[in-house]
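sry for the spam today, last one i promise. C-alpha cells for design, 145 residues
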C-alpha cells in the first residue's frame, strides 16, 4: 500500500499554491480540498507549521486526501454557511459538499484531517495501461458525513 502523492511542506500561502500545482493531474476537487485543508492549518495552527499532504487511491474509485499537522487540539468545525459579504468561512462547507465523507484522526502530537472523493486517478506514466496498486486508508476513521 502506498500513497499516490506525498508532499511535506511548511504551511504558508505560497505552499498552498504549490500544493494545487502538484495535485493538478488529480483534478480540481482534489486540488480544492487539499488546498483548503492546508489553508485551515495556516489559520488555526499557524503559518509555518509543518504539514504532510497525502493522497491515496482507495477501492471503488475513491481518493482520500489527508493533511497532517502537529496540533491535535485545533479541530475543524463545520459552521453555517458564511454570508455573501464574508471574506472567509466557506472552505469546510465546500469540502463537505464535495466529499463523500470527511473526518479527523487524532494521535499524540498530531492530527490528520481527511476527506474522500469519487475521482479517477490517472494512469501512472511509467506504466502505461496499468493502474497503481490500491492504497490503504490513512488509518481508522472517525467519519463525519
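last one done:
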Amino acid at each position: 500500500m502506498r500513497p499516490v502523492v506525498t508532499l511535506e511542506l511548511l504551511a504558508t500561502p505560497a505552499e498552498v499554491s504549490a500544493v494545487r500545482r502538484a495535485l493538478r493531474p488529480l483534478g480540481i476537487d482534489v486540488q480544492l480540498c487539499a488546498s483548503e485543508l492546508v489553508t485551515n492549518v495556516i489559520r488555526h495552527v499557524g503559518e509555518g507549521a509543518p504539514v504532510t499532504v497525502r493522497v491515496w487511491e482507495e477501492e471503488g474509485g475513491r481518493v482520500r486526501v489527508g493533511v497532517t499537522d502537529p496540533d491535535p487540539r485545533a479541530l475543524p468545525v463545520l459552521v453555517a454557511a458564511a454570508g455573501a459579504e464574508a471574506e472567509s468561512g466557506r472552505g469546510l462547507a465546500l469540502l463537505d459538499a464535495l466529499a463523500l465523507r470527511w473526518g479527523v484522526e487524532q494521535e499524540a502530537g498530531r492530527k490528520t484531517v481527511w476527506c474522500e472523493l469519487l475521482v479517477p486517478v490517472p494512469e501512472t506514466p511509467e506504466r502505461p495501461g496499468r493502474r497503481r496498486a490500491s492504497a490503504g486508508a490513512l488509518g481508522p476513521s472517525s467519519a463525519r458525513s
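Residues 36 and 83 are 18 Å apart (CA to CA). ok im logging off now
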